[in-house]
Specification:
By secondary structure, the chain is of the alpha/beta class. It has a single domain, classed as Rossmann fold. Helices cover 35% and strands 26% of the residues. It contains 8 helices and 9 strands. The strands form 2 sheets. It has a 5-stranded parallel β-sheet with strand order 6-7-8-3-9, sandwiched between helices. Helix 3 crosses helix 4 and helix 5 runs parallel beside helix 6.
């Protein structure tokens, strides 16, 4: 990765992050305690763990969707825990992409329009630049001939690739993916995951993905077992 200061080489750093949920008045359930976690910039990390172990909770914390009970989370050098909610929302929009299990595409809009919509709040980018970026990234994902198709006329694999393009539209340095191919058959999942890994490598995007697919494990820089880094004893 070359010579650089440690913090500059890290896309994500967690320090003593705990997350608890209230069970009843005066009683909380702690689900996560991550003493230390780092993700190098431009790396691909796969997160494993049994159902209910807190994988989605961890992604949501790193993505600034929820805040930890205690601790610090630095994304691109910014402690997102210290940000007020409006500032955290703005930071997430500029710096973090998120791919969900469900595609969440807007049915009335074409593949191209769905990706362009993700760039509406990027005021420094013109409509022409938005269109050019959307066309470029969809083409890289093998959808160059499907730009004018609406979600109903796309296969499930094609819909997920549109969702990937949407998540990467604003060049986020960090991409979070929560089992993005869980709703796809094995063959389609391999196509989608291969395209996702290649695109993240090309754009030097840091990827943290929850996945149990071998192709991701084989292509990852590191595989984290959540049960090994979570100090909460279940």
């Amino acid at each position: 990765m070359g010579h650089c200061m440690e913090q500059a080489c890290l896309a994500v750093r967690l320090q003593e992050v705990r997350k608890s949920f209230p069970l009843s008045p005066g009683q909380d359930l702690e689900v996560l305690h991550i003493a230390q976690l780092t993700l190098p910039a431009g790396s691909c990390t796969v997160l494993h763990g049994p159902s209910g172990s807190g994988k989605t909770t961890l992604l949501n914390l790193i993505g600034g969707i929820t805040v930890p009970t205690t601790g610090h989370i630095w994304v691109e050098g910014t402690d997102i825990v210290a940000l007020p909610e409006p500032a955290r929302d703005r930071f997430r929009a500029r710096h973090i992409g998120y791919i969900f299990q469900t595609f969440n595409l807007l049915a009335p809009f074409t593949a191209l329009e769905n990706v362009m919509l993700a760039m509406l709040f990027t005021h420094s980018v013109t409509k022409r630049q938005q269109r050019q970026r959307a066309m470029e990234i969809l083409s890289k994902l093998g959808l160059g001939t499907r730009l004018a198709h609406k979600p109903a006329h796309l296969s499930r694999g094609e819909q997920q690739r549109v969702a990937i393009a949407r998540a990467l539209a604003n060049h986020p340095p960090l991409l979070l993916a929560d089992e993005p191919c869980a709703n796809l058959d094995a063959a389609t999942a391999r196509v989608v995951l291969t395209a996702l890994l290649a695109l993240c490598r090309e754009e030097h995007t840091t990827l943290l993905m929850v996945s149990h697919d071998d192709i991701v494990r084989d292509g990852a820089d590191q595989v984290l077992e959540l049960t090994a880094i979570n100090r909460v004893v279940g």
